[in-house]
Design goal:
177 residues; mainly alpha; Methane Monooxygenase Hydroxylase, Chain G, domain 1; 4 helices
């Protein structure tokens, strides 16, 4: 059992190290979004994807170790949590304390990573909204005013709206009507 707990602690420490790198990549992503640097954003996203794949592999190894611990403790592997193992190790502080410490560190880091990712998501949404606004603005600037009855020459005396187009009273308003 001791070797299983040692493996679990080692695996969780490895996960923590990769999560720290993931937090760093997410912070780089924030900077890239704010500076609107697409090359840096792509590089940060690629790095995040690589680290997420690494974490998935480490998590699978940790799950296998937890399954083995569940078998030794005669517990259901679906129901066994790290906190349950920590409680089981109550009389063995040499294993309990490092396991509890890394579990807490991982939980804090996961919360921080979630905050950064929510912030990045909000920045991306705002950036997309600004892009959409700019596209709409540019599209509207390129359009001529669309009216049903008016033309450019309307105020020059060439249309029926400004009065007669011939004779001495051309372009004058008829007040008698």
């Amino acid at each position: 059992m001791a070797s299983l707990i040692e493996n679990l602690i080692t695996q969780m420490n490895e996960e923590y190290a990769v999560y720290e790198k993931l937090l760093e990549a997410s912070s780089e992503k924030t900077s890239a979004i704010v500076s609107n640097n697409l090359d840096r954003l792509k590089a940060a996203t690629d790095k995040e994807q690589f680290l997420a794949d690494t974490i998935a592999g480490l998590a699978n190894a940790r799950r296998e170790t937890m399954d083995n611990i569940a078998m030794v403790l005669n517990k259901s592997k679906e129901d066994l949590k790290i906190t349950d193992v920590i409680q089981f190790l109550d009389t063995q502080p040499e294993f309990r304390d490092p396991l509890a410490a890394i579990n807490e560190k991982l939980a804090k880091l996961a919360r921080r990573l979630k905050e950064v990712n929510v912030h990045n998501q909000n920045l991306i949404i705002e950036s997309l909204s600004m892009i959409e606004y700019n596209i709409n603005l540019l599209q509207n600037l390129n359009r001529a005013p669309e009216t049903a009855e008016y033309s450019r020459d309307m105020f020059k005396g060439h249309d029926g709206y400004t009065g007669s187009t011939t004779g001495p009273d051309a372009g004058k308003f008829d007040a008698k009507q």
